[in-house]
Every structure is written in structure tokens, then in C-alpha cells.
Amino acid sequence: MMASAETCFHCALPIPANCNLTTTIDGEPHPVCCPGCKAVAELIRDSGMSQYYALREAPEPGVGRPPEEASEWHVFDSDEMLAAFTTDAGEDVEAILYVGGVYCSACSWLIESALMRLAGVAAAELNPVTHRLRVRWQPADTAFSGILGTLASLGYEPQPLTGDADARPELLEQRTALKRLLVASLGMMQVMMFAVGLYAGDFQGIDAEMQRFLRVVSLVVTTPVVLYAARPFFTSAWRGVLARKPGMDLPVSIAVGTAFVASVYATLTDGPAVWFDSVTMFVFFLTLGRFLEMRARHRSIDRTAALSTVLPNTATRVTAAGNEIVPVSQLLAGNRILIRAGDAIPADGVVAKGDSSVDEALLTGEATPQRKSPGDALAAGSVNLDRLLEMEVTRTGSDTTLGTISRLSERARYARPAFVTLADRVASYLVIALLLVATIVATVWYQIAPERAFEITLSVLVVTCPCALALATPTAFAAAGSRLSQLRLLVTNGNAIESLSRADAFMFDKTGTLTRGVPKITALVVLDNRFSEYDCRLVAAALETASSHPLARAFKLDDSLPPVDDPHVEIGQGVSGVIDGRRWRLGSAAFVGAGTAGNDGPTTQVFMSCDNNAVAWFEVEDTLRPDTAATLQSLKTRGVRLALLSGDQEAAVEKLAATLGIDEFHAACSPQQKLAIIEAAQSNGERVVMVGDGINDAPVLAGADTSIAPAHGATLAQTSADVIMLGDSLAPLTTALAMSTRTMRIVRQNLTWAIVYNTLALPLAALGYVPPWLAAIGMSASSLIVVLNALRLSRFE
Amino acid sequence: MSILYVLIPLALLLLGGAVWAFFWAVGSGQFDDLDTPAVRIIMDDDQKPGDGNET
Fold it and tell me: Sheet harboring A377-378: ordered strands across?
């Protein structure tokens, strides 16, 4: 079971020990993990696009690996399907596809180039932010299935979209954010130039008229910055006030608002000084921080696709006139649909006919398939495993249980009280305090020495310019975020770094988080010496090809398998079949009918018999991620409490907890119970980090103080996660914890420095010991120190 | 120095033009993809398929 250190050249998954496949790109051999990846890599090479490998970013492991079974794309070639998924564009047709597996710019180049080479394709345009591909082509030259098949053969997952394809909230959000950022940055640059003129004028003397002119011009430029670029801060602050939950945007808004109003007043009344430069700079840095945060969020999430990727594209509807294949979006409550074995269920409903077992792991986390008979409820997103079912649809689309969970976790995410970060709070209050102090200084000096009042007030304002404070947090978070993404962690929520640094408890989901979620054979005991271990593996692999039970994946072998006659699947029991004239059975002890060493241990045991004689038994277990134990140990030494929350049975959870040295574990938890455990810990004052994947964990992730999800987990879980871990290893957790502590230390250093500098400089300036030129140097130097300190984070190991 | 009374308003007009042009470019979708254009320039679209095997 040892995974070699090498990873696949194409999909970056670890290469299995017994795999010796290589592919030659640009004259150099590279190892690959499976025949599928080899085929994709060679297809890319043979179509002259191998520079894709030179230009792409480090891939997320497993992305781009082709599916094991080819999908039946030809169903999309029928006239009804074309009509449902495409629109006419002159002589061509146009379709919008969601393409799963796109993760960088090189992907969109590869896809567009490959499609443009197909006959009749007029245009192909892929947006890597929204993962949407717009393709226009001549249906007479290339079939729809040809386009879908090309995408699939390159290792991507195409998904034709209907209806709401143009609803792209991310794109609109990005456009608005870009406009605001541009207004803030151009405005800041202009106002800075005028400010240089004003400061120089203060030293060298300036016409009162020219001074007023420069102030009015600054006012003209600052107004759109405050009213347009800073509008999100005002609206969010107002929403916070209405909800009686003032967020960090409130002090920001007050600072920006007061400084602006005071400057306007000073401009109109020829007051001693204006602060337009501080206002625009503050707004610019805040807007820049929000923009970078938004980009990081969009990069890893495609919310609108979360539902559609787990549901099938089409359904077989039963009508009086016979069966017809329709897009899932056209299903209505009351329709009868057929679900073949192996298909995902497209809508919520009730079994009308048939008897089968259904894998509901996506919704409930329960790995054991559930038996379904007429009258039983079926949930969208679960998979029919064994036999044909006919179901009556009750709810479709976003009304389904799956859709509801998705919406709930969305709401939980927005309802989480916005954490007021220390830095923004201090910076904003300080701006207000400085304005007050400057006014007091001006008034006092006006009484003592009217001729010096102006110069001293100016020094006070310059020397205490909140630039260093405004820069202290955003630069540190930006540097930490970019360093973390190099270390394979994507931060999607700016508060995550701070809340992670104060974590008291880490709670883990089991399957798919601590373990890989893929069962493996951990022991094989041969009871009959006529057969070798390899014979048993081969026979088991051959028998299990007939079954779609999750455990069947453990038996898969890439070698050539003996043919199985008369395969038979007994739901929840096992499989049987005839090989070389002998009847083999593989499954539970009772099913196999052989006297065997049964026990009730935590692992699953699978027995095999040949003509009713026991031959072997297998122990099948979900394997741990390679560095789980080491990671948990190092988290423990950092003094955080560890707990295991799992929906699985007590015995399995207890064994795993013992193996990993986790003292606290909760087995057989529903998502509600998991959430309750987290809330109980939170009410004890603990800050809880939840690490989990799977759709049923989404509300749990949203309820935790910080949530972390592995990248390969269900898309829905990632939408509520603050941090996304790329890669197969859990080690980034330790990195994230160390990095967050380090980041907060740097932030505190920066803030301390800025505050100490200001509190020292302020009295000196207020007492008239700092001439304005020295104040200007002091301000620039303090900002520079803060930025350089923050940049130390980008070298964090 | 009175030339500033002409030059600065002129600069502001140009600034307004630049902002308008940028808003138009964003609105027409030219900034929807901020990653690909940066690398597209170094991608060689003229390369011939290795053995003519397209898909």
C-alpha cells in the first residue's frame, strides 16, 4: 500500500507502486499514474499543444484525470437535446457548457485550441473564472457529442447548461469591483499630486487663491472616490447598524465620512488643512484588499455550478407515448422517470416501481447503501446502485433536499457575525482620534501663538498620517495569502487567518478528510492452498466488476480479468458468478455460506468461496492520508484540542481515534449533532476549526469559527469553507496554523510600531518640536517599515 | 503659475475620459478574464499537430 514519492506528470496524483507507465513529452520521459492520464498527455502532445505543460500552474491533484468510464455523449445528438441545450446563432448553433476541472489559464488555452481544430467550430471562448465555455459551431460538420467528447478526452468534465447560463454573479461582482478599484487608485494618485503641491506651498508660501484652487480640485477628484469607490463600506456599515450588529465597516465609514466632510468644510471656509489625500489613500488600500480577497474567493468557488455538477444532465421520462430523454431542467413534479443502475438521481421523489439500493453518501455521509422499495423517498444527488427504478418526481432543482442544504449553508455563511478585525478597528478609530487631536491642537495653538498654529497643526496631521496603520493589516494579509497559496492553501475569507491564529480546537470529519475516502484491501488471508493470493485478487476483481457497491472499488485491478458468466448481485450481501465452470461467491460470511473466522471488528471483512468451499477472506479498510498521524501529532503539540466527528459506526471511529491518538470522538453523528457539538464548544469560549468535506458537512463548516475543506471534496462543502487545502496531504493544516500565528504576530508588530511611532511623534509635533519636512520623512519611513515587515511573510517556510 | 488654471482642468478632463474608457472596456467584457491574456501571448498557436491525429 506504499505510495511512491513520485506524482503523475498529468494529474499530480501519487503514482501507484506497481505502475510503470511513462509518457514522452518534448523528448523527455515523464511518469504517469494510469492509462487514462497517459492517453490524455499523449493526445495533448500529438495535437501539438504540449506547451500546455510548460505554462500551466501546479495542478490540483486528480484534476484532469479522465473518468474511468466513457460517458454516453451521443445522447446529446438527438434533435430534442440540441434544441434544449443550444441556441441558433445565424447558420451556426451556440451552446454554453460548464467545464469542470479548469484551474488555470493554460487550461482555457488548451480547450479553446483543441475545439478550434474541430471541423465547423467557429468560436470557442472559455472564462476560467466562471468555468463557462461558449462554443459556436456548424452542427452539420461536428456533432454536439464530438465537442463534449473532445473536452472529456482532454480530461475535463463538460456539462451542458440551460436557462440560467447567463446568471453569472461572480462576473458582475468582479466588474463592479474593478471599476471601484480604478476610481479609487486614479483618484488617489491625482489627489496625492495636488497634495504635494499643497504641502510644498505650506513650506515655500503659496497664493491663497492657488491654495484654494488646489483644494477645490482635490475635492472634485475625491468626491467620486468617496461616493462611488467607498460605497460598499457605507452600505455594509448601514446594514450592520440596522441589524444592530455593527461590523468593521462602521468605523471605516465614519473615518472616511468625517475626514471627507471636515475637508470639504475646510475647503469652503479656507480652514487650516484638508485631508483629501488621507481619505483617498485609505479608501484605495481598503478597496485593494477587498478586491484581492474577492479574486481569491472566485478562484476556488463556482457556487452556481455546485448543484448542477452532482446532478445528471438528462433524465428518461416515462410518458404515455413511450420513454423520452429530457434535460433535467425540464422535469416537473409528478413526472415519472426511469433511473438505471449506476445513474445519479436527478430530483427528489418517491420510488414508484422497482427495488434497489441507493448510495446516499453525498447527503447523509452514510457509506452503506440504503435499500429502497416502492413508497420510499429518493433524494437528488444520490446514486442508484443495483437495479432499474421508476420514480415519481416530487421536487426539482433548488427545491430538492440537496438544493436546500446548499441554500442553508449559503445563509449560514452570510449570517455569521462579521468579525471585527483588530487592525481595521484600531486604524479607523485612530483616524477619528487624529482628526479630533488636530482640531484641538489647532485651537489651542491659535490661542497661544496664532502665527505658529497652522504649521504645527500641519505637522501633527502629516506626522500622524494613518498610512502605516492603514497598510499594517492589508499588506500582511496579502503577503500571507499569496505565500499560503504557494504552499497549497487557498484562503477564501480574509478573516480566516486571524480566526485560525486563535484556534483552540480542531474538529475533523473522518471519511474523505482524515482518510482518502477510497477503500483498499488491507489484508488477504488465503484459506485454500490451491490458490495464490494473486488468483484470489483476480477472481475478486472480476466478480466485483458486476457490482457498483462502494467497497467494489477496493478490488479493482488493472490486469486482464477472467470472464465471468452469469454474474449475480445480491443487494447488501455480495456478488456471485461462474468462472471456468466454478461458482464463486464474494461477500458477507452468510452470503458466501462458508464457515469462517467471523468477528465484529471495525474493519469490513469480505469472504470468498468457490463451489461452497471457503477460499479466502479480505479485510477492506479506508486508508488514511499519508501524513495524517504526523500532522495530528504536531497540531497536538501546538496545544489545540483535537476531536473526531463522524457519521460512521462507533467501532470504526473508535479504532481510528485510537490509532491516531485522538482522545475525543463522536460516532454516528448527524450533521445537526455535529453542529451541536461545535456550538457547545463555542459556548465554552473555544474557537473551533472544522476540517471536513462532503455536502452534509456544509452547514457544519459554516457554523465553525474557521472551516477548512480538502480541494477534492464536494463543491458544496468548499463554498462554505474559509480555507481550501489543495493536495492529498494534511500537512498544510500545520502550515496554516503556523502561518496564521506568524501573520498575526507581524500584524501586531506593525500595529505596535505604527501606534508607538504615532504616540511618540504626536506629542512632539503638537508641542511644536517637529518641523513639517521632518514630519513628512517620518511618515514615509514608518509606512516603508510596515510594508517591508509584512513582506517577510512571503518567505515563510 | 496661472497656466495651472488651464492645465489642471485639462488633466481632469483627460482623467474623466480615461475612466469612461475603462468603464466601457469593463462593461464590454474585456476584463472578465484577468489571467489568460497575460500568458496567451507566449502560447504558440501555429504549432503543427505532431502526427495529424486531432482527436
Answer: A322-327, A314-319, A336-339, A389-395, A348-353, A377-378
Note the pLDDT tens digit of each residue in A169-193. Answer: 667 888 899 999 999 999 989 998 9
Q: Same structural domain for residues A280 and A374?
A: no
* Helical spans, DSSP H, in A205-275: 208-224, 231-242, 249-269
Q: How many domains does chain A have?
A: 7
* Same domain flag for A524 and A611: yes
Same domain, A650 and A729: yes
> Which residues from chain B sit within 8 angstroms of residue A149, using beta carbons?
55
The DSSP code sequence of A342-379 is: TPBP-SEEEEEE--EEEE-HHHH---SPEEE-TT-EE-
Burial class (CB in 10 A: 0-12, 13-18, 19+), A786: buried
- What is the spatial distance between Cα A606 and Cα A586, in angstroms, rounded to a whole number? 7
B-chain residue closest to A25, CA distance? B50
User: Comparing C-alpha atoms, which of A310, A308, A323, A307 is closest to residue A383?
Assistant: A310
Does one domain contain both A661 and A683? yes
* Chain B interface includes A178 (CB < 8 A): yes
Q: Which residues, in sequence order, are bridge partners of residue A724?
A: A490, A709
How far does the CA of residue A171 sit from the closest CA of chain B (Å)? 7
Residues A506 and A630 in one domain: yes
pLDDT band at A38 (very low <50, low <70, confident <90, very high): confident
User: What is the share, in percent, of chain A residues with pLDDT greater than 90?
Assistant: 5
CB contact under 8 A, A114 and B55: yes
Amino acid present at A356: S
Tell whether A45 is within 8 A of chain B (Cβ): yes
Residue A306 pLDDT class (50, 70, 90 cuts): very low
Inform me whether the pLDDT recorded for A415 exceeds 50.
Answer: no
Q: A190, B15: Cβ pair inside 8 Å?
A: yes
Q: Is A188 on the interface with B (CB under 8 A)?
A: no
How far, in Å, are A18, A33, A107, A627 from residue A3 at the CA level?
10, 11, 28, 12
pTM (2 decimals)? 0.55
